[in-house]
C-alpha cells in the first residue's frame, strides 16, 4: 500500500524546488526584462507552432492517401440556398464518406481530406514572414516518398428547355488534369452524389467497383472499374480487384473462371482471408456444394471477427437449403456490423421463403432505421409496405430510394406504380415514359418487374383514349 510513497514524496519535493527557482528568477527581473522575455517566448510560439501544425496536417494527409481538397467555387444560386464554398465542399466530402460507409469491401476505405486547414496555416503571418507551405510539403514528400495531390474545382449552372442543369468539375494538381465532369438537372444533392462516386472511381476504382456491384447492382460499371484497377497504377488494389472479379464471374455462372480469379488473389497474398469467400461462391456456382461450405467455414475460422466471414457462410448455407442455419449466420453478421445492408436483405428474404412475413418486415424496418441512406433497403421497405396493404405509407420510402438512385430502372418502375396508386397520374406517366424508352433501348429488368413494367407502358399507351 505504501510502496510508492517515497518516489511520490521525492517528485513533489522536486516540483516545489522548480517553482521556488522560477519564482526567485522572476522576482529578480525588472519589468522591462520580463517584457523582453515575453516577446521572445511569443516569437518562438508564433514561428514554431504554426509550422509544427502544418507539418502534422500535411504528414497526416500524405500518410492516409495523399489526397486533399480545396474549397469548391460555387455560383450565387447555390449560395442563395445555403451552399457556400465551405458547405458545398463539405457536402461532397460527406457523400464520399457515406459511400465508404456503404462499402462492404475488405479493402481499406479511401479518405479525402479537407485542405482548408492547409490554406489557413499558409496564410498565418509570423515575424519571419508567412509560412512557405509548399516547402513544408516538399520536405515531407521527400521524406515519405509520396506526393500530395490537391483537388480543386467549381460548380456552374445553365438553363435548357426550362430546366436548370448544375455541373461540377474537379481538377487534380499538380498537372491540372480534369478528374471528373458531371452534370445533372436533379438538383444539388444528386450532383454531389454523382460527383462523389465519380471521384471515387478515379482515386480508388476497386472500392467504386464494389459499390456499383453491391449497392447499385450495376454489373457493367463494376466490371469496367475492376478492369481499370487491374490495369495498374493502383498499389495494393490487385488482390481486391481479382476477388471482386471472382464474385462477378460466379454470379454469371462462370465457375471455372471465378475460381481462377480467386486463386490469383490468394497467390498474391496467402494470408488474404476474403479469397476464401470468393472461393466459396465460385465452388457453389460450380455445384461443388460441400467444398463451398468447407471454404466458407475456413473463412470464419481464419477471421471470426469479420462480418463478411459469416455473410459468406450465410449465403452458402442458404444455397444448400439450410435456411435455419443461414439465419443464425446472418444474425451474427448484424451483431458484428449493424450497417451490413446485404445481411438485412438476405435475412428478410429467408424469412419470406420460410413463410414468416412478420419477421421479414421487422428485419427490413430495422435495416432502414439503421441504414437510411441505403437505396436498396428503402426500396425493400416500400415493397414490403405495398405487399402488406399499405400503399400510401410506401410512397415515402419509394421516393427516397429513387432520390438516392434516380437512374435505377427498378426504382423508377416502383415509384411510377406508387404515384399512380396515389392518384398522381401525370408524374406516374412521366416515369412510365422513361421506363418505356429505356426498355426499348435494350435495357433489361427481372421477370417479376417485366410484368409490372408492361402494365405501366400499357397504361401510358392508353392515356390518349382516357382523355
Q: Quaternary arrangement of the chains shown? A: single chain
Q: Alpha-carbon distance between the termini?
A: 94 Å
Enumerate the strands of the largest sheet in spatial order, edge to edge or round the barrel.
2-1-5-6-7
The secondary structure category is alpha/beta
What is the annotated CATH architecture of the domain at 46-203?
3-Layer(aba) Sandwich
Radius of gyration: 29 Å
| Overall average pLDDT | 81
- What sort of overall outline do the alpha carbons produce when their principal axes are compared? globular
List the uncertain runs.
Answer: 1-6, 61-65, 111-133
User: Which CATH C-level class of the domain at 46-203 is it?
Assistant: Alpha Beta
* Count of runs of 4 or more consecutive helical residues: 23
Helix content: 55-70%
CATH fold assignment of the domain at 46-203: Rossmann fold
Q: Main sheet, how many strands, which sense, barrel?
A: 5 strands, mixed
Question: Could you tell me the strand content as a percent range?
Answer: 5-15%
Structure report:
- 35% of the residues are buried.
- With 467 residues, this protein is α/β, with parallel strands linked by helices.
- The protein is globular.
- It has a 5-stranded mixed sheet with strand order 2-1-5-6-7, sandwiched between helices. A two-stranded antiparallel ribbon has the order 3-4.
- The chain starts with a helix and ends with a helix.
- The chain has 23 helices and 7 strands.
- The model is unreliable at 1-6, 61-65 and 111-133 (pLDDT under 50).
- Among the domains are: 46-203, Rossmann fold (3-Layer(aba) Sandwich); 408-467, no CATH class.
